[in-house]
Amino acid sequence: MKPILVINFKTYEKATGKQAVKLAKACEEVAKKTKTKIWLAVQIADIYRVSEAVKLPVFSEHVDYQEPDSFTGSILVEDVKDNGAIGTLLNHSEHRLKLDVIEKTIKRCKKVKLKTLVCAASVAEAKKIAKFKPDYIAYEAPSLIGTGRSISKFKHKTVKQFVEELKKIDKKIIPLTGAGVSNGEDVKAAIDLGTHGALLASAVTKAKNPKKVLLDLVRLI
């Protein structure tokens, strides 16, 4: 499997609305030029416009487990899929969920064949989440997010442990990692530790020249 780079657009101004499309196109250009896998996690309101503008896999930044009914404000899995998303990001450190909610949401996603990429703040949490059989688990140390201090360098032993523990539970779950990932060396280090890629945001979404940053991020994979 080729390494995956997942760009979380979050709610940054440069990654919202029309700017989200612009950033998505930059990601697609780099993906085509370098023949690498780049996936996009975007705001709910931007799923349709981004998925229509590029051919890269698009993930929703979140979904809820509610069934179609009178649940004003809930984000239905059927809706994000119908608008072009192939998967969803869950339990990011900025949008934490209880374990029972994670389990219910993964089950709902499986029903409509929406992929699940679930974040874990620790190896212990990753092991609990793995029992729900998501498609991907990304180990992210909350203290390193947005710092430029890469998890693959500053917590390399824990990343390696995460990969090993995940294999013991379910080899089908694909391990990713993130937090502070800023350059090609950080991504390469993550892959060398046994992950299949990285989840990152600010290094790209806040960059003056996102394309240049992206080219650096993928140059060693």
Helix and strand composition category = alpha/beta
SSE series: EHEHEHEHEHEHHEHEHH
Rg is: 16 Å
Largest sheet: 8 strands, parallel, barrel
Q: Give the proportion of residues in helices.
A: 40-55%
Binned strand content: 15-25%
- Gap between N and C termini, in Å? 12 Å
**For the largest beta sheet, what order do the strands appear in spatially?**
1-2-3-4-5-6-7-8
> Which regions are unreliable across 5 or more consecutive residues at pLDDT < 50?
none
**Count the helices. How many?**
10
Shape: globular
Mean pLDDT: 96
Task: Tell how many strands the DSSP assignment holds.
Answer: 8
How does the SSE layout of this entry go?
Layout: E1 4-8, H1 18-34, E2 37-42, H2 47-53, E3 58-60, H3 77-82, E4 87-90, H4 99-111, E5 115-120, H5 123-130, E6 136-140, H6 151-154, H7 156-169, E7 174-178, H8 184-192, E8 197-200, H9 202-205, H10 210-218
